Amino acid sequence: MAKFDEAIISIRPAFTEAILSGKKTVELRRRIPPVEVGARLWIYATRPVAAIVGIAIIDTIFRGTPQAVWETYSDRIAINRLEFDSYFEGTREAIGIRLSQIQSVQPIGIEQLRVWKEGFHPPQVLSRLSASEAKRLLQMSSFEEKRPSNVVRLLRA
Predict the structure, then answer these.
(1) Contact (CB, 8 A) for 20 and 105
(2) What is the CA radius of gyration of the chain?
(3) Which residue stretches of the chain have pLDDT < 50?
(4) I need a labelling partner for 114 at 20 to 30 A (CA). Which of 14, 127, 139, 156 fits?
(5) Quick one: pLDDT at residue 35?
(6) Alpha carbons 119 and 116: distance in angstroms, whole number
(7) Best CA proximity match to 121, nearest among 34, 68, 50
(8) Mapping DSSP to helix (H, G, I), strand (E, B) and coil, where does residue 15 land?
(9) What is the pTM for the complete model shown?
(10) Cα–Cα separations (whole angstroms), residue 149 to 57, 68, 99, 138, 152
(11) How many other C-beta atoms can be found within 10 angstroms of the C-beta atom of residue 35?
(12) Continuous segment of H or E residues that includes residue 82
């Protein structure tokens, strides 16, 4: 399966709030989605929110035993051990996606998304975006990309 640079990821509202507040910087998955480090994720909060509410960049993708992932990232996943063990029950491998450059955006509701892309359905895991779709979402979200600048401003005293 081809990997891509822009995608929508579905996350439950409690976890989107934790991500946007900075309490959760690692998203857990039972299987690895087809994305690469550096990809931009549009964070879709599932119902009852039903809207894209943020953007993050994939900093690292890691995999390991559930125990190893818990020991390394438990302070960055915003769930307790019981919830973690329940989620990974019956699996040998845990996947973590470390997020960086997390930012809120002007919410884009499900109805707007269905106008933006005919037949839009929130993804089960991830949904690939083309460059033109991502550009349109940037416009709809009133998001201004922060681009690094090499301009140095000298001020007189």
Answers:
(1) no
(2) 17
(3) 149-150, 153, 157
(4) 14
(5) 87
(6) 9
(7) 50
(8) helix
(9) 0.87
(10) 19, 38, 22, 20, 8
(11) 21
(12) helix 81-87
